[in-house]
Specification:
The two termini are 30 Å apart. The radius of gyration is 20 Å and the shape is elongated. Strand 1 and strand 2 form a beta hairpin. The protein has one domain. The protein is built from twelve helices and two strands, in the order H-H-H-E-E-H-H-H-H-H-H-H-H-H. The chain has a two-stranded antiparallel ribbon. The longest helix is centred in the last third of the chain and has 35 residues.
C-alpha cells in the first residue's frame, strides 16, 4: 500500500507545479456548458415540455451532468499512456515491482485529486449562475448512490483512456482516434442531449455500453426519472464494465508488450 500512496503523492507534487495547465480546462468547459444552456433556453421558448423534460429539468440535466463529467474527467490521460509507449518511457516501468496498469491508475488518481479542486470551483460558479432554474432534490441514500456512481464512472473513463493510449503499441499517433472515440463516448453518454431523445435502437445501444452510466443514468436518478432499484442496478453494471475494461486493457497490454519488446525499446 505504501508504494501506491507514494505514487499518488509524487503525482500530486508534480501536478502542483502544473496546476495552471489544469486550470486552463476551466474556460473551455464553461463555454461548452454555457452554449448548451443557451441552446436549450432557446428551444424551450417555443415548448413547455421536450420529450418528458420541462425547462428546469433540462437545465438541471445539463448542469448536474456536466459537473458529473468534469469530476470523472481524465484530462487527456490517453496521451500520457501513448507517450510512455512512443517515447520508450515504458521500459523504465517494466522493472518496477508493480504492473504498469496499477502504476498508471495511481498516477491518474493523483492527477484527479488536484483537478477536483478546480471542479468544485466550477460547480460553485454554475450553481451561482444557473441555480435559480435548477432542481435540488437530495437525501442521504441518493447522495451515497451518486457518490458510488461518480467513483465508478471515473474508473470506466480511466480504463477506456488507457485502452486508447495503448493503441500506440501499433501506431505512432492516437490523437485523431482519441478525439473520435471520445466524441462517440460523449454521444452515447448523453452529454449532448438526453438519450431518450434518440430513436429506440440508439437508446438500447447506449444502455448496453458503459458510457451512459457516466452521465445519463446518474442524472436520470438525480431527477427521479429512474428508481432507487434501477440506480443500484446501474451501479452493478458499472462494476461489471470496470472489470471488463480492466481485463481488455490487460490483454491489449500483453499483446502490445510483445511488440514493444520485439523492437527492443
Amino acid at each position: 500500500m505504501k508504494k501506491y500512496l507514494a505514487i499518488v503523492k509524487n503525482k500530486l507534487q508534480e501536478m502542483f507545479a502544473y496546476r495552471y495547465d489544469i486550470a486552463m480546462y476551466t474556460p473551455g468547459n464553461f463555454l461548452e456548458l454555457f452554449f448548451s444552456y443557451l441552446l436549450w433556453t432557446v428551444i424551450f421558448q417555443t415548448a413547455d415540455v421536450v420529450r418528458g423534460y420541462n425547462y428546469n429539468e433540462m437545465v438541471t440535466y445539463i448542469i448536474v451532468g456536466w459537473i458529473f463529467m468534469f469530476i470523472t474527467a481524465n484530462y487527456d490521460f490517453e496521451e500520457t499512456v501513448s507517450k510512455d509507449i512512443r517515447l520508450g518511457r515504458l521500459t523504465n516501468y517494466l522493472v518496477k515491482p508493480m504492473s504498469y496498469l496499477k502504476y498508471v491508475t495511481m498516477v491518474a488518481i493523483g492527477r484527479v485529486i488536484i483537478a477536483f479542486g478546480f471542479v468544485i470551483l466550477q460547480s460553485a460558479l454554475y450553481v451561482a449562475l444557473f441555480g435559480k432554474n435548477m432542481i435540488v432534490d437530495l437525501d442521504a441514500p441518493k447522495i451515497l448512490i451518486l457518490l458510488a456512481m461518480v467513483f465508478l464512472a471515473f474508473f470506466i473513463k480511466l480504463f477506456f483512456a488507457i485502452i486508447i493510449g495503448m493503441i500506440s503499441f501499433w501506431t505512432m499517433e492516437v490523437v485523431g482516434l482519441k478525439d473520435f472515440l471520445n466524441t462517440l463516448a460523449r454521444f452515447f453518454s448523453g452529454a449532448y442531449f438526453p438519450l431518450v431523445m434518440l430513436p429506440a435502437v440508439f437508446v438500447k445501444t447506449s444502455i448496453a455500453l458503459p458510457f451512459a452510466y457516466t452521465f445519463f443514468v446518474p442524472v436520470q436518478f438525480y431527477l427521479n426519472k429512474i428508481s432507487y432499484a434501477e440506480a443500484v442496478r446501474g451501479v452493478g453494471i458499472q462494476i461489471i464494465w470496470i472489470i471488463l475494461l480492466y481485463f481488455v486493457a490487460k490483454i491489449i497490454y500483453g499483446f502490445g508488450l510483445k511488440k514493444y519488446e520485439g523492437f527492443g525499446a
